[in-house]
Design goal:
Blueprint: H1 2-24, H2 36-64, H3 68-84, H4 87-109, H5 117-130, E1 136-137, H6 140-143, E2 151-154, E3 157-160, H7 165-175, H8 182-201, H9 204-215, H10 218-223, H11 230-250, H12 253-269, H13 271-290, H14 299-321, H15 328-332, H16 358-375, H17 384-392, H18 398-415, H19 433-454, H20 459-493, H21 500-507, E4 513-517, H22 521-530, E5 539-543, H23 547-550, H24 552-556, E6 562-564, E7 578-579, H25 582-586
Parallel strand pairs: 4-5, 4-6
Antiparallel strand pairs: 1-3, 2-3, 6-7
Helix pairs in contact: 1-2, 2-20, 3-20, 4-8, 4-9, 5-7, 8-9, 8-11, 8-19, 9-19, 11-12, 11-13, 12-13, 12-14, 13-18, 16-18, 17-19, 18-19, 19-20
Length: 592
Amino acid sequence: MKVLRTILFLLMSVAILFVFVKHFHGIPTIDWADNPDQKEKVAREIQLYQLGLVFPAVVLALLGLSGFSKLMTGMKKLNQVILIMPRWLFCLVLFGGACAGSAFLNAHYLHRSPQIIDSHNYYFQARIFKEGRIWVPSEPTMEKFFNFMAIMDTDGRRYGSSFPGHPFFLAIGEFLGVAWLVNPGQGGLIVVLIYMLGTVLFSEGTGRLAGILALCSPFRLFQCSLFMAHPTATLWILVALVVLFHYFRENRASRALFLGFSIAILYLTRPQSAAPVLLPFGFYYLWFLLRGRVSSRHVVLIIVPLVLAITGSFFYNKQLTGDYFVSPRDIASPSLKLGFGADVGRPLPGGGFTGHSLASGLRNTRGNLQLLVRDALGWGGWTVIFLILGIILTRARTVPTLLLLSGLVLMGLFMAYPINSPLFGARYYFEWLPLYLLLLAQGMSGTVKVIQTRTEGRPLIHDLLVPVSSLGLVLFVISSALLFLPAQIDRYYREIKPNTMGQAVKRAGITEGIVFYKGDYFSQAYAFVMNDPLLHNKLLFANDRGDRENILLFSRFPHRAYYRLNDTGRGDIQGKPIPYHPGQHAGLSGTE
């Protein structure tokens, strides 16, 4: 027996060593140029690396460690510490860990600035809101030098095309000088609210497990490192659900009013995601209302904030587009709408649209669902088993069914949406991630309880069940951190370039003037971030339109120094800014 134990120990050690050697020599990375099948193949390889590390590690722990009993004792103590930890301290740990993780990714990889078209749109709106305005004036001759895709210009008004809710919260962060911390901070609150909702819907143990799963979720980590609106919408969905289920218990007017306030914020933030996620719970509320379990007088308190938000959105539209019923999104993307047909989708360069069909919608749904299942925890697709168990093993199945239905409704809606954007995870499904994690946590907790109940007369199995389960959880979290997460970071951030434009100007000691750049999206992105919406900067970055057009800025900014940067593509600025005078290069005088 001792020889067999030694052989197994050596085999498992070799297996783990092989995995680590493969990992540090480079796990295959996913290139943006790869097609979906190639990306999925690499993702499956990553999962195989995980399996190659986790299961040998478990066998080693069981067969090869002389201190196995000490390990089990340590797991028991860890489990007890988590369960008896004061709620305020547990919430503080969840918030601090979640916020710090996303903040690190934002600072280290995104350089504290937005990188995606939509996020630039949100940030632009936030900076306008910070000035106490909802639009800034524009001049036709100036717009071409300081434009950026997705930024609207209507009758001399320049504004963003997105809903105002998320930019409002970014504006608060911008006012405090920490806009890049808004989404990481919201990510911390999301994890805390997942725990709170879990305790309300299920139990304290399930809530704490769900909070830990959310804290360790790569999908949550990535999405909350961006400047996108998904964390804001997710946060207020959770607020609405926590308030709703407290309202069911207490039937207080203040709860109803705060519920209406939360829904109003969601309408102004991201209604296309909030509505499907909350729809099943809306029917559940109606069932409570019709049975007289909540006050009918409170309906007004829920509806009034939403009516005010809808009315405010009409006036917001009027100020920007000139029409109460035409939103900026209607102008920016008239073909990006729910439905199927040749006139739906992204505009094509030669006219027409990409089109959208039920078949493409089903493909998008399949791909996004696979990403959600894989990226939610980074443990592999097998974890969906716990979602099924979370429904089966719960005696009162109403709540688990509602959680599942909200995800199905969300998927059904985005099946009819022509754009599939698996960006940093299945981002269109992010608003359902907390409910998905709650189902997983309930399934894991329920499985342990069932096994405990059926092993009452077997002390060895019964006593080891909790510490072994805790050990498995710890090992899977470690495997995700060591193997899955680095590969995903490489996948998602390989296209992100550092702000070489800002670095080049800083190295040259330039603090005032106008710097002309010529490049692609990445160059425009950083220039857009560094310019003030009202162009009040002492140092401005302008799109290089050629010598004959650049001279227009000479009369607009006559006392500025001018520089030119060379862009080698993909935002990679090399060298230093070169002094430049548009009139001299164009063969014109400064007044011509």
